[in-house]
Structures are given as structure tokens and as C-alpha cells.
Amino acid sequence: MAEWPRPAMAHRSALAMTHSARALAAILVDNVVAKGRSLSQLFDEYADELAAMPNKERSLTKALTHGALRHYPRWRVIIDEACDKRLKRSETLVRALLAVGLYQLLESRVPPHAAISETVNAARQLDKPWACSLLNAVLRRVQREPHTIQAWLRKTPWAMLDLPQWLWTLWKRSWPKHIQLLASGSNSQAPMTVRVNRQKTTREHYCRVLADAGIAAQPHPVAPDALVLRDPVEVNRLPGFYEGLASVQDAAAQLAGLAVAPQPEMRILDACAAPGGKTAHILEICPEAVVNAVDSDPIRLKKVEENLRRIGAKATLIRGDACHPDSWWDGQPFDVVLLDAPCSATGVIRRHPDIKLLRRLSDVTAVAATQKSMLQSLWPLVRPGGRLIYATCAVTTQENEVQIQKFIDLTPDARAVPLPWTDPSPLPTAIGWQCYPGWQFMDGFYYAALHKQTMPDTP
Predict the structure, then answer these.
(1) Which domain holds residue 39?
(2) Peptide bond into 239 cis (omega under 30)
(3) 37: left (phi over 0), alpha (psi -120 to 50) or beta
(4) Does 373 share its domain with 293?
(5) Residue 60 CB burial class (10 angstroms; 0-12, 13-18, ≥19)
(6) Cα torsion 182, 184, 185, 187: sign
(7) What's the pTM?
(8) Residue 58 belongs to a domain with what CATH number?
């Protein structure tokens, strides 16, 4: 998936490294909720401070941050009701502290007395001593009155499911019978999945290598090169990672390589290639394929180059915009075009919970327009008899089946064809294949395969 643009941010000075786990988590949550910052960007910005923390504190900081954001639709209702008019809207950092405290009380194993006292201490550290009594009172009330909390939440059905209203509305409209499933999957902890390089080893052998290294894993039931780890680990603990034996990639994203089904000498275009996981997998499946990888971001294109070098594969890398291929295409058609299109990323919320707070319904409409432009621009690059594989990590009909159906309706030589795996679509869809977050350990993903028919000559 092509990521939404992020401005480059400098790391914070080591002089500022004085925060406790709860204080830093509140700062990060406040930056997302009140300032619209990306969590990934913030983790980069605070990398030095996080690295200076003991491992346990660093892990706690990230767990508190993710938890406070993952359940923030619920925390917002509780904070508004419990504080009544005692907390100004402008006191966003105190609201973030309350979210961190509520996560500890209601969703973690932190003992209640520690959750409350340490959150109050964090307020002092963040120069908010006046808020200590408020934090203490609200958190203790939440602990004492669970029935009151449930009554508040019943007024807002989306908050009961820890969903923002815009996403609850979309899913209620498209999959009303599956909304509980979609919500629970999006609010779950995503597993770490690795892709085994079949050119260097086998999945079975690498699973034994992991076991010897003390890393428990199991074969994925759908993606043939995937192993799902019982517990996440740092990539430098993966045996042979730097030698290209394995890569970190969700199993749903690994289905792109199967959909492309590369063959020797087949000309393949990966149209939104960065950071290069799908390009790499295609070449692991068939090193003799001729792959062109295109991305508009030179920094992210460099990441594609690094990933290919690590696994020992080669592709032609092109800096270019998928909406404007005339500026970079040499005119030779491709057997297969893979379009992993920019999207709302609603299928990967469990990995990026800030998406709930940063996206709006209007964003879905805007990105769907970009997808439409890419489909129309890239279709002429497919040879007659060739295929275009369309993929997103979104779970919305507007970006997926509706998008593809409209394209087929407007494109006489485009026809939907089956995908190579046999599992039926986990979510009902009129065209293509849509899985939801958590299905068979996967992120939410959509795939459709389009065949370019040879049109008869007009007399």
C-alpha cells in the first residue's frame, strides 16, 4: 500500500529524555488526538527518548499509547460524562492522561492502585499538578461504578465498539451483520508474521530454526510462505534476517505474490511498490520474472532497493507517478500490473490505531478518486490477454468492490477473473475477495483480478 505522505521530522534531543512511561504515552496520545499527528511519525520523532528507556518501560510506553488510542472512542465518552464541565476542551494533555489511565483500569492487567497513582504522578511530571485531584476522582469513580459507565456508553453504539462514528456508519451500511466481527478484529493485537524466502530455505525448515532460537511459530493456513509468531520479536532476533532468509510481512499482503503468479520472463509492474515487500515476494516466487517497481517517493524507493538487496533480488526501480505513466513508461506492455493502491488503511487499524482518529469519511471519498485515476492510467499498460491485480488494505466497499465494478462498467475490455486461492471471500462481496482484520491472523485486505480481453477489430 502506498502510504499517506508524512513530512520528515527530526529526532528529539537527548536532553528531553526525562518522561515516565505514562507521561510519554500521554504526550504521544495528545499529539495524535489534539494535533492530528501520525503515531508512526511520533515514534520516529521520540526514538531517542524511547531507546534510552529500560526495555520494560519502553514496552509499557508503547502498550499504553496503542491501548489509549485503540479504545479512544470509548474513552472520549467516559471522559466527557465523568468530567462534566470540570475539564476544559483546551486541556487536551489532561484528557490524554485520562485515556492512558482508563486503558490501564479497563483493558490492561495493571493493578488498579498502580494505574491510578502512577497516572496522577505523570500529571505532576507534566506540570499539571492542578489536575491530580480530578484524575484521581474520575479514575476511582470509573473503578467503583461500572454500571454507570455502561449506561453512558449505551447512548453511543459506535463507542461501545471502540469505533469512530464515521467508520461505524460505513461498516453498518455495508456489512451490518458483521460489524461486531469487524470491530473486534480491528481492536485486537496484530500478530507478527514473517515471509520465508523460498529461494533460500523452506517454511518447515525455517520454523525449526526459529524454534531453536526460542521463537515459537506456526505455518499460516492460507499464505504458503508465511509463519505466524506466537510473540513479536525485534527483527534482529530473526535468524538469517539480514541474509534474506525471512522478511516481516502480514499474511494478507503476501497473497499479492500469489495473485500475480509470476512466471519466467513475465513482464510485471508493481505500480506502488514502496517499501518493496510485494516486489520482493514476487521475485522470491520466481527470480526469472522481469519486474519493474515504481513509486513516486524517492526516499521510499530507496527502501525498495534496500529490501531487494537484502534478499539478493533485482528489479528495475523507477521513480514515477502511477497516475501519470506517460512520464516514465517506455511503451512496452506488461503481462501483469499489480496496483496496491493508496487507501484509507481501515484494514490495518489494529496495527495503526491512530487511523481511527486521523481519518474522516471525506478521506475515503478522496482516496477513491485517486484509485480511480490510477486504474484508468495503468490499464493501457496491460497487454491484451494480461491481468491487473488490484489490492488495498482497506475494508470499505467504496474503495474496493464498488470501485472495481464501476471500472469494469466503463472499460469494455476488462473482465473480472477468479483469484488463485480457493478460500471464499470472508466478507460478502459482489466482486473480488475481501477479508477482515483478524481472519486467519490477517489484516483486512481486498483483492480483485482483471483480465484484459482482446477486442475484435472494428470493421
Answers:
(1) 14-160
(2) no
(3) beta
(4) yes
(5) buried
(6) positive
(7) 0.92
(8) 1.10.940.10
Residues 6+ apart with CB under 8 A from 55: none
Instruction: Kindly list the averaged pLDDT for each block of 10 residues, start to end, along the chain of length 459.
Output: 42 59 98 97 96 94 97 97 86 97 96 96 97 96 95 96 97 96 96 98 98 98 98 96 98 98 98 97 98 96 97 97 96 98 98 96 97 98 99 98 98 97 94 98 98 74
182-205: per-residue pLDDT in tens?
A: 999 999 999 999 999 999 999 999
Residues 6+ apart with CB under 8 A from 107: 67, 71
Q: Is residue 166 part of a domain?
A: no
pLDDT recorded at residue 435: 98
Please say if 343 is a catalytic residue: no
Task: Please name the helix (run of DSSP H) or strand (run of DSSP E) that holds residue 206, with its range, or none.
Answer: helix 203-212
If asked whether residues 239 and 288 sit together in one domain, one would say no
The answer on 416 and 385 residing in a single domain is: yes
Alpha carbons within 13 angstroms on the beta-carbon side of residue 112 total: 10
Nearest by Cα to 158 from 122, 127, 186: 186
Give residue 80's identity as a one-letter amino acid code: D
Bridge pairing between strands 267-270 and 334-340: parallel
Cβ neighbour number for residue 368 with a 10 Å cutoff: 23
Strand partners, 415: 451
Task: Encode pLDDT of 309-331 as tens digits.
Answer: 999 999 999 999 999 999 999 99
Angle between helices 146-154 and 132-144 (to 10 degrees): 90
Task: Name every residue whose Cβ is closer than 8 Å to that of residue 447 and which is 6 or more positions away in sequence.
Answer: 255, 256, 259, 389, 390, 391, 419, 432, 433
Chain centroid offset of residue 148 CA? 34
Kindly state whether residues 212 and 301 are assigned to the same domain: no
Q: Is 448 helix (H, G, I), strand (E, B) or coil?
A: strand
Question: For residues 410 and 65, what is the distance between their CA atoms, to the nearest angstrom?
Answer: 45
Do 73 and 113 lie in one domain? The reply is yes
Catalytic residue from among 207, 286, 343, 393: 393
Contact 433, 425 (CB under 8 A): yes
Say how far apart CA 443 and CA 343 lie, in whole Å.
14
Give the 3-state secondary structure of residue 28. Answer: helix
Name the residue among 235, 288, 237 with its Cα closest to residue 263: 288
Please report the pLDDT score of residue 3 as a whole number.
Answer: 42
Q: Where are the alpha helices (DSSP H) in 228-378?
A: 251-260, 277-285, 298-311, 355-358, 361-378
Calculate what percentage of the chain has a pLDDT beyond 90: 93
